Amino acid sequence: MKFMIIVKASKNSEAGVMASEELLTAMGKFNExxxxxxxxxxxEGLHPTSKGARVRFAGNKRTVIDGPFGEPKEQIAGFWLxxxxxxxxxxxxxxxxPNPHNEDCEIEIRQVFEAEDFGAALTPELxxxx
Length: 130
What we know:
Elements: E1 2-8, H1 11-14, H2 21-36, E2 40-45, E3 53-58, E4 61-66, E5 76-83, H3 87-96, E6 107-111, H4 124-129
Antiparallel strand pairs: 1-5, 1-6, 2-5, 3-4
């Protein structure tokens, strides 16, 4: 099963405050454990939303909205993509993670759709396009 592990933003991450050397070292060790265990498929930190943009869709119309965007706790500061056996395994790994902001924060765990989740709607022709 694949899971996206979403690190929610904080006031500091949205302000562009960079992680300390100590936190970078701890996170590097954690990432290495994930790699050695065959869990981590990808992972990246994100710049603050002030450097981003959103594209809003309304029918055929597209509107570009420049950041920053709303409350930090509703934004994303980074993510991992993990391959694990269950949601419980993903939770166990997250509990081992260093606090990504050294302040109160949340990490969200979301299962990624895979081909078999779509059943008959994913025809052989559509599957071949993947």
